[in-house]
């Protein structure tokens, strides 16, 4: 390979390090995105809470008019 005869190793290493540095600096900031359960992904996603408990949601369609509003309770999720 005639190309390697004309290559300066010191210039290659310096330019390679500068290129890696630019790539690391210009890298976009990572974002944490939370996926919340909805009827379309119920049963497909596995969720983990702060206590390392894994669980899935099961979607069931109910008629809200059949239930007493006082009997419906909120369930806090530990995310």
Task: Identify the strand order in the major beta sheet.
Answer: 1-2
Number of helices: 1
User: Biggest β-sheet, characterized?
Assistant: 2 strands, antiparallel
SS elements, strand count: 2
The level of helicity is: 10-25%
> Hey, roughly how much beta strand do the residues contain?
5-15%
Helix and strand run: HEE
Give unreliable regions as ranges.
none
**Given the helix and strand composition, which structural class is it?**
mainly alpha
Distance between the termini: 58 Å
Radius of gyration: 27 Å
Inertia-based shape: rod-shaped
Could you walk me through the main structural features you see in this protein, from its secondary elements to its overall organization?
This protein is mainly alpha-helical and 79 residues long. The chain has one domain. It contains 1 helix and 2 strands; from the N terminus they run H-E-E. A two-stranded antiparallel sheet has the order 1-2. Strand 1 and strand 2 form a beta hairpin. 0% of the residues are buried.
């Amino acid at each position: 390979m005639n190309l390697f005869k004309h290559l300066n190793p010191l210039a290659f290493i310096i330019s390679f390090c500068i290129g890696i540095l630019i790539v690391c600096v210009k890298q976009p900031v990572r974002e944490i995105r939370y996926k919340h359960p909805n009827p379309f992904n119920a049963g497909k996603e596995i969720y983990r809470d702060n206590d390392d408990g894994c669980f899935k949601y099961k979607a069931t369609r109910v008629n809200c008019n059949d239930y007493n509003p006082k009997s419906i309770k909120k369930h806090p999720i530990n995310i």
